[in-house]
């Protein structure tokens, strides 16, 4: 007889962010994602205590998928980031770090959550409007007739994933292949609505990365013996293909609650096999050269087709069936090589991210300057607007300028902290007082020295230190300034080594971070059912 236990009452926690345990857990999560950020981010190994698969990565999609999160507050944050990544593939760590920073900074301010949430919403609108405006100083147009900016975008994504363990030569090679694969999915004849094709990533493990290549069409694995025996010796023109998404194994399907009536003396298995052979005769009479089946083909049918010089390939799998069903579309295969399984999995995920980001640029053909420069530039812009033009935000008079300045400073410091997360070795971080860009100095640099001698370019690579700049340490107090917004046309037009981010993904990440932080700050109670 089973034993019944009394139902436990639900656990109700008021003001969850006031709990030291919740704050400590948020701090740990922030430390994890912050330490993974950027090209020099630290890798993480995740596995459960019982053994099994070990994930080595610094990507948010892999980390959050394997990270066990139980507290409801953290679950809100991680779920929001995962939803963002599932839609846009990129900027997951940016979203998580910014969200944690916003929550942490606001908790130090003695303002009500309602005031904080409302003003953060105004600041988010200010950021979005600026980043989408023609006056934006950190936005570059994407010209699809030239490859420079597109290659910079792909190269930036590959460089930011240290677990791929690629050399500079390998990054350049894979970047060119990803861009080639993307261009092969764009149809030649474009109507009002563009329907992109598919890039299929095919694993070739144990090979050199530089042996990777791109082939138009779908690559299907066939044994060499099968090819030499079954492929016609002289075949002019294309092969006629028959595709089956159902099983051809001869198994009788489950009838559910129905019944199958079989006449006396009739073998159901033989009857089904006869039908399969009849299908084979029809395929031969229709001059089919290649039969592809998602599932299993009966050995007798395989033998029949082989005798009649028809190639039969089964167990194709569901992954290839979607592109096979529209094989007339623009489809290509990226043969991706790498040295071992773990690195290949990370590289595959990175290539999928890059291909998706390239697709996003078709809808919004712009990129944002990367390397922390957009964050520091945006922070300088917000400080200037809130100090010098507060009436543009405080239109309804509901909040005071003091409240606006407090929240704006917390918002700007959250953005600057994201940029600062790119430095993992204790180096100094500066911003110039002209463009508001990000500059990093090595940790072992001399204490008294001329700053321009210590670095050659800003984080995104657009400006060099030979210009006349005045400098400020990141997060230090300085008078707000107007960051210049004019991008040098010749520098952008001939740019080949810029670090850039996808505008669509970055904007979505910014919005997700602010809205998720607002949701968490607005939590009054957490009710957990412990049964």
Outline the secondary-structure elements.
Elements: E1 11-14, H1 20-35, E2 44-48, E3 51-57, H2 60-66, H3 72-88, H4 92-106, H5 113-132, E4 139-141, H6 148-159, H7 168-184, E5 198-205, E6 213-216, H8 224-230, E7 241-244, H9 268-285, E8 290-293, H10 299-307, E9 311-313, H11 318-325, E10 331-338, H12 341-363, E11 366-369, H13 373-388, H14 401-420, E12 428-432, E13 438-441, E14 471-473, H15 489-493, E15 500-502, H16 503-521, E16 525-528
Helix pairs in contact: 1-4, 2-3, 3-4, 3-16, 4-14, 4-16, 5-14, 5-16, 6-7, 6-12, 7-12, 9-10, 13-14
Quantity of strands, as a count: 16
**Into which percentage range does the β-strand content fall?**
5-15%
The rough form would be described as globular
As laid out across the biggest beta sheet, the strand order is 4-11-15
Return the domain count. 3
CATH class of the largest domain: Mainly Alpha
Helix content range of the residues, please? 40-55%
* Rg calculated over all Cα atoms: 29 Å
Q: Could you say what the CATH topology of the largest domain is called?
A: GROEL, domain 1
Keywords: ATP-binding, Chaperone, Cytoplasm, Cytoskeleton, Nucleotide-binding, Nucleus
Protein name: Molecular chaperone MKKS
InterPro entries: Cpn60/GroEL/TCP-1 (IPR002423), GroEL-like_apical_dom_sf (IPR027409), GROEL-like_equatorial_sf (IPR027413), MKKS (IPR028790), TCP-1-like_intermed_sf (IPR027410)
Family: Belongs to the TCP-1 chaperonin family.
């Amino acid at each position: 007889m089973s034993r019944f236990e009394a139902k436990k009452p639900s656990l109700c926690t008021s003001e969850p962010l006031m709990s030291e345990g919740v704050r400590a857990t948020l701090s740990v999560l922030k430390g994890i994602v912050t330490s993974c950020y950027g090209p020099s981010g630290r890798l993480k190994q995740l596995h459960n205590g019982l053994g099994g698969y070990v994930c080595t990565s610094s990507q948010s999609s892999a980390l959050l998928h394997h990270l066990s999160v139980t507290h409801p507050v953290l679950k809100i944050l991680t779920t929001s980031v995962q939803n963002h990544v599932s839609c846009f593939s990129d900027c997951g760590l940016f979203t998580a770090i910014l969200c944690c920073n916003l929550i942490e900074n606001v908790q130090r301010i003695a303002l009500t959550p309602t005031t904080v949430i409302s003003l953060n919403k105004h600041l988010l609108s200010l950021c979005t409007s600026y980043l989408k405006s023609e006056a934006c100083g950190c936005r570059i147009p994407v010209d699809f007739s030239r490859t420079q900016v597109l290659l910079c975008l792909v190269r930036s994504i590959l460089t930011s994933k240290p677990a791929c363990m690629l050399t500079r030569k390998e990054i350049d090679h894979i970047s060119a292949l990803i861009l080639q694969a993307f261009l092969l999915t764009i149809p030649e004849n474009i109507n009002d609505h563009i329907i992109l094709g598919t890039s299929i990533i095919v694993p070739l493990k144990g090979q050199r990365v530089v042996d990777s290549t791109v082939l138009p069409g779908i690559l299907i694995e066939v044994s060499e013996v099968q090819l030499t025996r079954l492929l016609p010796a002289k075949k002019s023109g294309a092969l006629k293909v028959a595709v089956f998404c159902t099983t051809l194994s001869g198994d009788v399907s489950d009838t559910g609650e129905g019944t199958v009536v079989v006449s006396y003396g009739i073998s159901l298995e033989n009857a089904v096999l006869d039908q399969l052979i009849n299908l084979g005769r029809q395929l031969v009479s229709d001059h089919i050269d290649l039969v592809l089946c998602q599932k299993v083909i009966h050995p007798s049918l395989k033998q029949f087709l082989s005798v009649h010089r028809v190639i039969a390939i089964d167990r194709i799998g569901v992954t290839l069936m979607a592109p096979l069903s529209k094989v007339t579309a623009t489809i290509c295969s990226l043969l991706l090589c790498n040295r071992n399984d773990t690195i290949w999995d990370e590289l595959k995920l990175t290539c999928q991210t890059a291909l998706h980001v390239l697709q996003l640029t078709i809808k919004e053909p712009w990129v944002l300057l990367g390397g922390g420069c957009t964050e520091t530039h945006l922070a300088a812009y917000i400080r200037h607007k809130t100090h010098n033009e507060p009436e543009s935000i405080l239109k309804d008079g509901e909040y005071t300028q003091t409240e606006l300045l407090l929240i704006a400073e917390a918002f700007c410091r959250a953005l600057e902290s994201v940029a600062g997360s790119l430095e993992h070795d204790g180096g100094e971080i500066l911003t110039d007082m002209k463009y508001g860009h990000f500059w990093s100095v090595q940790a072992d640099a001399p204490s008294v020295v001329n700053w321009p001698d210590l670095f050659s370019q800003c984080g995104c690579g657009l400006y060099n230190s030979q210009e006349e700049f005045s400098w400020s340490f990141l997060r230090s107090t300085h008078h707000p300034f107007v960051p210049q917004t004019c991008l040098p046309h010749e520098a952008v037009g001939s740019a080949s080594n810029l670090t850039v981010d996808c505008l669509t993904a970055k904007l979505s990440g910014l919005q997700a971070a602010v809205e998720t932080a607002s949701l968490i700050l607005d939590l009054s109670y957490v009710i957990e059912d412990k049964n």
